[in-house]
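STRUCTURE REQUEST FORM
Protein name: Fibronectin type-III domain-containing protein
Source organism: Ilyodon furcidens
Requested output: structure tokens
Priority: standard
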Amino acid sequence: MPSGGTCLDILCRIDEFWANLTCDLKSNSQPSDTLKASRMAVSFHRLSQGNSTNYPTSDHQVVCDAEDSLMCSIHLNSSRTFAVLVTVNISNVMASTVLLRIPARPVKPSPPVILSHIQTVEAKLILSWKEPSDFSGNLLRYEVRYSSQNTPRYWQVVSALEKLNVSLDLEPLLKYTIQVRCTTQSQPPLWSDWSKPYYIYLH
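Status: completed
Returned output:
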């Protein structure tokens, strides 16, 4: 309302497993007592995509309500593109409906393979690996994690971006367990499983 209505932020996101669309609704800059008497509701109405301009309605609808703030989720169980209408209702006042186009679930890549390493003359250790066998040509980025026998439950993680190798700073006289995983450039990223463990012992 122009004379000082309630201002809320709604943030919708897809989890990394592409299993749920979750929207958080909360007050942005208003004092907390502004919403004490307000009842908020978020409804998801899933639509089936016929073409870029036609979204026939379906019977799949999810409604969540709460006071002050809420989190509401809808399960994603489709490998095809579809749309969701998101409607916010505050004390029986309905905001403009937002249309979210949900892209098709990306294919989870297989983990990298054939890990190996070399030591340079400068005593740098370079870990290398190969792209997964089902790599389809999209850019991949990688993460490397490693732990030592002294800290078996503590993983250090290094980002390798699009490279197929990374330099690691390992201590001598320790046995290390190393694994690599990858993801495509999709948003949010869908990571592969970690590769088979690779072991290094530096003399």
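Reviewer notes: The first strand starts at residue 8 and ends at 14. Residues 51-59 have pLDDT under 50 and may be disordered.
Form closed.
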